[in-house]
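Example 3.2
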Amino acid sequence: MSELKTKKQGKLIVLSAPSGSGKTTIVRHLLKQKGLNLEFSISATSREKRGNEIHGKDYYYLSLKEFKNRIKNDEFLEWEEVYRDNFYGTLKTEIARIWAKGKHVIFDIDVSGGLRIKRKFPEQTLAIFVKPPDLNELVRRLKDRGEESEEKISMRVAKAPAELATAPLFDEIVINANLDEALENAYQLVSEFLAN
């Protein structure tokens, strides 16, 4: 992490949740709030592109071999094999790039990765867990997306109880039962954290 120590450092805003909780919607809302001075941390992944996704905007798409080589070279702040041969991670260069612009970094990241970032930068990180009102609502939201097979949805739902159990390890919990309230709650938490 020495290359991160030399750059001007901003703060890190982590949003984590089970798939379907609404964290991506909340992250997009926060990015639109100009006064927060946030920039999105683009994750690297070994998975294939979906639909209209763009390399360098949605993700940095790496081959499985390249991803594993970068792990060996200690190029990741955090990484995770989320599903078999399906890696996600945050490149150290991505954080350095955003900090060099004088901005704060916001992450839309899985629970394990979010907690790793919090452990590495405890004072600089606000870790927010986005919680769905209940598991049934989570399943409904995943199905309503219409993006994934029943098998993939089942895999995501099977992971949810373990992910939900980590909520107390985060600094704050935002319950996304009412989207407008969740957006406002997240905004207040982030603006207060950045003001200190």
